[in-house]
From TrEMBL:
UniProtKB keywords: Membrane, Transmembrane, Transmembrane helix
Transmembrane portions of the chain: 42-60, 67-85, 97-116
Lineage of producing organism: Bacteria, Pseudomonadati, Pseudomonadota, Gammaproteobacteria, Lysobacterales
Organism of this sequence: Dyella ginsengisoli
Superkingdom: Bacteria
Protein name (Swiss-Prot/TrEMBL): Uncharacterized protein
Length: 125
């Protein structure tokens, strides 16, 4: 077995564990076992399922795994923006956190945009 095969096997099992954890979390939120905030529990379960998707797909399609990973990173960036622009942010310097979140989103959009531009402008063979 070579290193690439081991990486695919590890990725699949990691994705399986994340998917099972996300499904269990969603089941607990649905069953009423979570009393604090059901919406946050569903967001956490969805985040775990979204994180599991690239790991589960990687052994079969590296290209699709990259696309799913970009979607997951965009979801994290949007969640970060949502968290730092809440009116009840429990931080001493919220402006620093807001600038960091905005910088992450701008760098992510620029990186994905440049990669797409390079891919579209490359001569096809």
């Amino acid at each position: 077995m070579n290193l690439r095969t081991l990486a695919k096997i590890f990725s699949f099992f990691l994705g399986l564990c994340l998917a099972l954890l996300g499904a269990a979390w969603a089941y607990m939120a649905t069953s009423g076992a979570v009393k604090s905030d059901i919406t946050e529990s569903f967001v956490a379960a969805g985040g775990l399922l979204l994180a599991a998707a690239p790991c589960l797909v990687f052994p079969f399609s590296g290209r699709l795994a990259k696309a799913l990973l970009v979607v997951f990173i965009f979801a994290i960036a949007v969640g970060m923006l949502w968290l730092v622009f809440q009116p009840n942010l429990p931080a001493e310097h919220p402006a620093v956190l807001q600038v960091a979140a905005i910088a992450l989103v701008v760098m992510l959009v620029a990186r994905v945009g440049l990669a797409l531009r390079r891919k579209l402008s490359a001569p096809s063979t």
